Amino acid sequence: MEEKLPEDLANLSELDEKSLLEVLTGRFTQNLIYTYIGDILVAINPFKYLSIYVKEVSVSLKSLPPHIFAVADRAYQSMLGHLATGPKNQCIVISGESGAGKTESTKLLLRHIMELCKANSQLEQQILQVNPLLEAFGNAQTVMNDNSSRFGKYIQLRFQNSSVKGAKINEYLLEKSRVVHQDEGEQNFHIFYFMLAGISTEDKEIYGLLDPTRYRFGKEDMVQAWRLKYAEVCNAMDMVGFEEQEKVDMMTILAGILSLGNIAFEMTDSDALKVSEASRGWLKATAGQFGVQEEDLLKSLTCTTSVTRGEAIQRLHNQQQAEDARDSIAKVAYGRVFGWIVSKVNELLAPKVDCDVELNEIGILDIFGFENFAVNRFEQLCINLANEQLQYFFNHLVSMENSFTHARFVPLFQDLFLTKPIGILSLLDEQSAFPQATDRDFVDKLNSKFKTAPNFEVVRNHTPLFTIVHYAGKVQYNASGFLEKNRDTIPANIRELFINSVTPLLSVLFAATISRTGTLMPRKAKVYLRFNFCLFFDTPHSLAVLMEKMFAASPHFVRCIKPNRSKQPDQLDSKLVMDQLRYNGLMETIRIRRDGFSWRPKFREFAERFVVTYMLVFNSVMSLSCGIRVCLILDCVSCCVDYRARICRRRYLALLAEIRRQRQAQREREEREEEEERRRRLELEQENRRKDCALFTAPPVLMALANKIIIPLVILLLLLVYLFMMLQATDEERMKEKQLKKTNTIRWFKEMQVRKLTRDGGFPSWFHGMITRRRAEDLLIDKPLGCFLVRVGQSREGFTLTYRGADRCRHYMVEMQSNGKYVILGEDRAHSSLTDLVQYHTQVGIKPFMELLTLPCGQVSVLHSTHSCRLFLLPGGNSNPESHKPPVLKRISDRRRRVEATQMEHKDDDPTGESRPFPRLYPSIRLAMREIQQIQQVQTHMHRRYRGDM
Ligand SMILES: Nc1ncnc2c1ncn2[C@@H]1O[C@H](COP(=O)(O)OP(=O)(O)OP(=O)(O)O)[C@@H](O)[C@H]1O
């Protein structure tokens, strides 16, 4: 039999590293990957599938043993005020090194919270779809993790009472440099691979994309899995609400980034710079994909234009500068696409409630883990600083519980990084402001300022190196490129070029400014766009603001631990685990949790919540056992005597929650009694009034007649008349309202749906127009299982899919999203048309019963379509609703208009009549692709001849 190991490390009788490791290892071998330290959850990555996340677990285990769902449950219940405290914002902080399982934990938390607040709305599905979308654009394969998040995120879920009303994502520090450079064993962002693998041959031609192996920015081979991932990303964009045209524009920009990476430069004999012969086609392709003129693009790559005293001065680039310009365009374009996706998601998922409605919040912070590679660059410094700040937050909260430990946690980042004007970040900004300053100068400055600082070590080397002793260990940084990365500026000529692109999204992205958190702000930019280090950490919108938010909320911590470096299941490297426990401050935490208390309310909060409650429910407390009463009284007394000492342990919290529950029950009992009393008094009064009437002195026979027959009769008559009139009025109103809704739905259907649904002037056999629910059920009653029909809703703009189930008919609501996609409510898949939706569910069952559509219930009329269907057809059978126009641009240049006119011509050629959005590419793109392929064919031919194959 398996040994029963403690679930909470704070309960260990022997506390040393050995026993701690023994418990964790023992639990890990029993597949118990979660363990508590008080209310902190330690999660060891199993690197294998475990059946502990199935729906039954999340539903059945209310008070879960250590589990990620238990954290979600606690945060949710606390947010609602169902636990010890009143309703309050919550935040869940997930930390750990790269590959420890933070992103997976975030997904599980989100999933479970959505499960808890199930309101059967599409919003939950949309929120869940945000993750695959962000992962595709913000994650990449690294040596540490095949799906490593290359950005940090803080997801805010907003609730009104128990149901979710919206969500907001804050993204931090996307590692843009990955677009142009990947170290050995690493890859570019997933989306490039997904796109190249998943895009159809026809679309490849449209976007000007070639075989994946042709690109410098994405050098890996494609696999089948990426094709599926691409479909998943497209579906996520549809589900969240992206417009088709926006998707197309975005893909065009990604194609442009890929082509841009292939432009190479060379020096001519006369020492001038030119684009290499082999990559001239790529220059043309890039210009076509970005929707800019080839000459303008070339100019912006090969020289910088600056204006001095009204005079434009051109400075020619050398080869290195031209390559830097190329890479910086790619990085900025990608960074902005990512920022745009996030702001678009935020716009689509913003709560649609009155602004005076107060919303509660659960925030989930998933931020990159501490990193220490062979070469650590600017990005690692940013990441490690963020971790340093998080650790400070954690230490601060933990040390609050034990004043003795407070002094042990030195806020390194505050002293070394943030001090003004001599913190590392200030010095970096100061040096970045000097155009002539070099990375070496920056490191020299650091060496002279911090040579005696305890957390800084000088490195004597010809490369600009320096070492910082972080809470998690020593990290040596290579400062090459620090200044350039910190400047992160776009020269004015490049910005101008892209603002005038024919791709509206590109001009929006380059016209926008970047907020200090890195968020895209769609407004006029200054000449130079800056997003630098100090801005990030210094301003009211920075990570520091995030910290403020977190300090104001009730925190929950999940500490993820990586069991081994080889990402293997069932292997636990004790040293690696111990190191993580140590630098996470977990050893210290266990000690504190054992000795102290885990909940630290403010005195006022405590007094309001419990002391007062205690006084009020003194009577009910008397029914509790003597021991408990003593504990409570001691608590209250100590609370008044020493506020610091009154902080409640969990068992007290449970007890106090029990008292609150009893108090609530008592209040309800009292209210019931009051209500009873009021009713009794009312009855008594009525009785008395009746008696008074009886005392009225009229002739007894007349009185009896009036009392018993005439008056009741008249009252009855009046009542009947009144009722009749009322019924008629409400009936009329209801009829009018119903009719109005019906008319609106018919108009909606005629204007927006007919064209999409009809083929050759007729409707599909399963479509029955606007019939009632009853009629739909009658039609299906004698049909076999799986038979189905689709009807138009009578009171809402949407469809209903009626399905012949095993026991009865089921009605699934089909919603049309604002981007024109069709979704069955609660499903996680969006479809371009109703026909696609039906087709899809002939293969994939509809949740929750996984019902497959097998047989369409045909229309009964001889004319193939029922009366209700014909009602919708436009005269002549030819529906000609106004075609869907591409988004109107604010600043459409003449050039862009010409391009759009050509595209409109294309649309008219489309035999299906569907207005499919087109990328706004120059026709030259085809020429460019041909040119590239020809050059490559020549090269291959020569290569073969050289090898003697021919
Ligand atoms: N609970 C889990 N069950 C099964 N496998 C898991 C679990 N958590 C993590 N993994 C595995 O570990 C891998 C790495 O996890 P994850 O991407 O969540 O790490 P991370 O801490 O977010 O890393 P990074 O900081 O690099 O983004 C996952 O791709 C998955 O294969």
TrEMBL record:
Residues 898-910 have a biased composition (Basic and acidic residues). GO terms for molecular function: actin binding; ATP binding; microfilament motor activity; protein serine/threonine kinase activity. Residues 4-610 form the Myosin motor domain. It is found in: Cell projection; Cytoplasm, Cytoskeleton. The chain crosses the membrane at residues 709-727. Belongs to the TRAFAC class myosin-kinesin ATPase superfamily. Myosin family. This is Myosin-IIIb-like. The gene is LOC107704107.
